[in-house]
Amino acid sequence: MSTQEQLVTVRRVAWRERTVGAGTVTCHPPAVNAVDSPPDQRQFGLEFAFDLTPRSRRVRIIAVFIRVSFDDPAAKAVLLESDEARHVYAEETQQHGFGWFFGDFGQQSQLGSTYVMRAVVETPADLATVTGTARVDASIACGRLRPRVEHATLREPIALALRPGGLRPAPAVRLCFAADIERFSRFRAPEAVLAQERFVQVMAQARGHAGIDVGQLGLQRSGDGQAAVFPPAVDESRVIPLLVEGLARALGQANADRAEPDRIRLRVALHRGHISWGANGWIGNSPIAVQRLLDSPGARQALADHPSADFVLIVSDVVYRDVIAHGHGNLSSRTFRPVRVDMPAKNFTEPAWIYVPGATDRALSAG
């Protein structure tokens, strides 16, 4: 059930406040989706949609700030996104209040009427209902010849009551991803903080470039790495080349003009298989196998042998045969070389393929 609220403007005139109608706000029912969660936490995807309708054609919306506040301080947003086509700035925060800013304060700008936002929210596992409020604030330009800018807000915030309990990802064949920072222990504490921040940004940019829906992403974080289970039924022929392209771009920007000790270099792995959600995480071969590929001597040696490369990618044989070998996107199969991952201590043996961006076919073959 959608909620309509009046948007009113607030101006100061001769030391007195007065309000005049500016339009209406329609809040569509928030969508709650299941995502992967750490053992002691619960994460869920949340999607908001708002419609703003000005009171007349003489009123133009030039900036909108939508803020969500949870009543329980333990509930927080760990990832925020929105429709990139709307040129949205998302304020990512670790607090229980978070929001999105649309547009700017230029009097000539004009925003559309619909705003869609997505977040991954983390709550304690025993919190059955997440309550809070959503508030919409806007800057509007009134008039045509000499427009004046006024501030508009809701009379009352919109009450939220989200019930994520019981959500579990359905069993499916899914693409598994893992990444790790090379020699993370070399960083001292202040440097490690900055390296983690750059790493998180790189991962988010790469996933965004590939068009991954974060609301259906199973994400697990560690100090020097991330593991993710991608949404089911993604088009791997499109997603994998774009993901690799996004990684190359994001790492290139993150390492630009940095001294060698400050660069972050990554090992990255991809595997695919049928997995399901259990009482304490994902169950299946692929989430385990992708970590074995990531930690394999072949992947580590490839990164060591190519010091100018920002990352190396190792993929399972099934991913190579089904996707890479067919030359989708800008990812040529000729730039991959076969390796045998043999880890007796882990009872793991599997063929795989390694890609080093910027390495020539001859250099790869020689490796």
- Give a short account of the largest sheet: 12 strands, antiparallel
Radius of gyration, whole Å: 24 Å
Give the total of beta strands. 20
Number of domains: 2
Order of helix and strand elements from N to C terminus: EEEEEEEEEEEEEHEEHEEHHEHEEH
CATH class of the largest domain: Alpha Beta
Give the N-to-C terminal Cα separation: 60 Å
CATH topology of the largest domain: Alpha-Beta Plaits
Return the structural class.
Answer: alpha+beta
Quick one: overall form? elongated
Task: List strands and helices in order, with pairings.
Elements: E1 3-13, E2 16-27, E3 31-34, E4 41-54, E5 59-70, E6 76-82, E7 88-91, E8 97-103, E9 114-124, E10 130-142, E11 148-154, E12 158-162, E13 172-181, H1 189-210, E14 218-222, E15 225-229, H2 236-254, E16 266-278, E17 281-283, H3 285-294, H4 297-305, E18 311-316, H5 317-322, E19 336-343, E20 348-355, H6 361-366
Parallel strand pairs: 16-18
Antiparallel strand pairs: 1-2, 1-11, 2-4, 3-4, 4-9, 5-8, 5-10, 6-9, 7-8, 10-11, 10-12, 13-15, 13-16, 14-15, 16-17, 18-20, 19-20
Overview of the molecule:
The chain has 367 residues and is an alpha+beta fold. The protein is built from 6 helices and 20 strands. Strands 1, 2, 3, 4, 5, 6, 7, 8, 9, 10, 11 and 12 form a 12-stranded antiparallel beta sheet that branches. Strands 13, 14, 15, 16, 17, 18, 19 and 20 form an 8-stranded mixed beta sheet that branches. Strand 1 (3-13) and strand 2 form a beta hairpin.
